[in-house]
Prior knowledge:
Chain A has 279 residues and is an alpha/beta fold.
Amino acid sequence: MDNFFIKTKNLTYIYGKEKNSKPALKNIDVGIKKGEFVAILGENGSGKSTFARLLNALIIPTDGEVFIKGINTKDSTKVWDIRQTVGMVFQNPDNQLVATIVEDDVAFGPENLGIKPDEIRKRVDMALKAVDMYEYRFKEPHRLSGGQKQRVAIAGIIAMKPECIVLDEPTAMLDPLGRSEVMETIVRLNKEEGITIILITHFMEEAVLADRVIVMSKGEIKMDGTPKSVFSDVEKIRSYGLDVPQVTELSYLLRQDGINIPPDILTVDEMVDGLCQLK
Amino acid sequence: MLRDITIGQYVPGESVIHRLDPRTKILLTLIFIISLFIIVKFSGYIIAAAFLFGVIYLSRIPIKYTVKGLRGILIILLITILINMFMTPGRVLWSFLFLRITYEGLTQAVFMGLRLVFLIVGTSLLTLTTPPIIMTDGIEYLLKPFRPIGVPAHELAMMMTIALRFIPTLMEETDKIMKAQMARGADFESGNVLNRARSMVPLLVPLFINAFRRADELAIAMEARCYKGGEGRTRLHELKYSPKDYIAFFMTFVMVGLFIWNRYWVW
Ligand SMILES: Nc1ncnc2c1ncn2[C@@H]1O[C@H](COP(=O)(O)OP(=O)(O)OP(=O)(O)O)[C@@H](O)[C@H]1O
Ligand SMILES: [Mg+2]
């Protein structure tokens, strides 16, 4: 039935032992194709991080299933395959770097996989070049900026040759410059290397770059579609405690004032086009 | 400014001594320390000094760095010398009231003092020419054979690596919290010891809470990167002995040979 890369079936997750406590995720059924760039939005506590951790077997579903390339994450013999296939980048860049030298940190994953030293060497160089951090390979992580650290963390995942990278608010702790560096890297990995990207974010401007946007609320998927279709429903998205990109908001306000402008404007360029066509 | 702290006393360099395998350096330092106990004549220390100066010269480390370590043990050094000088029975050279210095005591004191000085300078050379992280690698490799009897070689090394990685991060954080508390009127400098200790509480509590949170996140990140302990793990930089390591071992054995020769046969 499916050629989905990631597939969840009736996925439910409850923290803690008591079955009657409130589930963090409820009956999620979703499929993600290879090479897709998916952004996941949702207010605090909506279950985004829980979903992310279920994707690489850091936690196992309370109920239902997660399949990665057809492999069930409950299969404890395949845990390492799954974690190698689906890499994960976390919010705080400081708390995911292990080694005292950049290149040693990037080597950490391949070392865990038991790869031969000369192959590790190749992968480390390849990964650092892919995130544009090659000239920093001998630096100590604490001397790097937040955006640079986060790119090193991404390199550490790329060196494991994953097919998918899940990023849990990778830009939340970065300044605007660091944020754009990291976003550029993510988009490039998706477009050029064909790596499937699942990006959890609170920034609508980042979600606009994705092929697909999923909105979560209270442990459930409420909206799922292209950025245009999701953001054009301004009222609905607000009801889940989220905002829309600034230009989309502007077009929404203009429409309310009776100006005939398309409802699915996501970028400044589109806004300029839309306004020019009014005459 | 806190970004620039360096851990340990490593002095960067490209000398032969810097480039020796860390295992060689650790083992040879141990051999050097133990072999100091072979020496029983003053002339033996001349051989040891020649050897040590040779290594210092090769390492290109300024002498003043190598003796810095002595400052920390000055008191111990002094006490050792005094106890040996006054407490050893033997031929009396000088006495005053209950104090007396014997010939044996005097030589014993000089030898003990010299031994301590050589010991400290020798180990300083190890830490001055080896970055802590390389030292950690060396220790891991050296302890590996003892795994079957329960020495957690990999785990120890991983703990040391993580500690080294996080010391700068935690220092920065301490600085940040301290400034935040000072901005709210906290005073870390004045008052007696008790007051100052008490003012550290609002500093240490958030620091510890954050450290635990960091540890938790780091553990998850490591698991997500397929970390499953030392079993089946390879290394990007594998340690390999090179000809210069064999030469270093050879030179050290020559030195030990000279010590033995000096003790039993000559001078
Ligand atoms: N370790 C845990 N133990 C118990 N409950 C947890 C744990 N982690 C999360 N939860 C709960 O599960 C729910 C979903 O949390 P989750 O972290 O997945 O949300 P999120 O969408 O990632 O939120 P945020 O935007 O704040 O990161 C929340 O109600 C949260 O309180
Ligand atoms: Mg989260």
